[in-house]
Amino acid sequence: MFGSDHPGSQPDYWKQGDSSTTLIRTKKGVVVSLRVDIQSARPHNMVHYGLQGTEGAYLGPRFDGEDPLIWLRNEGSYTSGNDPKWDSLWHHKTKWDHPDWRAWEKEALHTGHGGGDFFIIREFVSAILEDRKPAIDVYDAVTWSSVFALSLQSVSNCGSPVEFVDFYGKN
Q1: 137 Ramachandran zone, left/alpha/beta (phi>0; psi -120 to 50)
Q2: In this structure, what DSSP letter does residue 6 have?
């Protein structure tokens, strides 16, 4: 693209792999494992997420037609032998669906990212029209975006921990 003289045309210029795993330890001692894979040759999947805590877990679908799965400690997600089991998220739809999703599902499903784009844009426009702070502000956005740069910094320092920048200036 830039020609054979550009540094990016050299084989050793690009050091990243197909995927990256970042470990984040919060101030409260919670460890977050974040895996990003946007380069590998496998099929792309925008909704395959996992979230795990001590009282429950979520596992997004791996392919079209597969249900998202949940395990909830206090919601009967056990076999008769008291072994934990995954349950379809859709079995809990009436209890856990957000009121906004109930109201806007048909419209949202015609937008990107499984309907998520609809709600992000709706929130942004509502915040402007109502002259209020948005649910996700510029400080949240820059903090979330900084994970990439901080990960690169950590990798270049042999995996050493890197402090998050406090963009709010509260510390």
Answers
A1: beta
A2: S
Q: Which residues contact 41 (CB under 8 A, 6 or more apart)?
A: 18
How many helical (H) and strand (E) elements, i.e. helices and strands, does the chain have? 4, 6
Q: What pLDDT digit, counting tens, does each position of 38-73 carry?
A: 777 777 777 788 898 888 899 999 888 899 999 988
7: Cα within 13 Å, side-chain hemisphere: 3
Q: How far apart are the first and last CA of the chain?
A: 44
Q: For 119-140, write each residue's pLDDT tens digit.
A: 999 999 999 999 999 999 899 9
Strand partners, 32: 24
Report DSSP state, residue 85: -
Distance CA 13, CA 148 (A): 18
Whether pTM exceeds 0.70: no
CB neighbours of residue 45 within 10 Å: 13
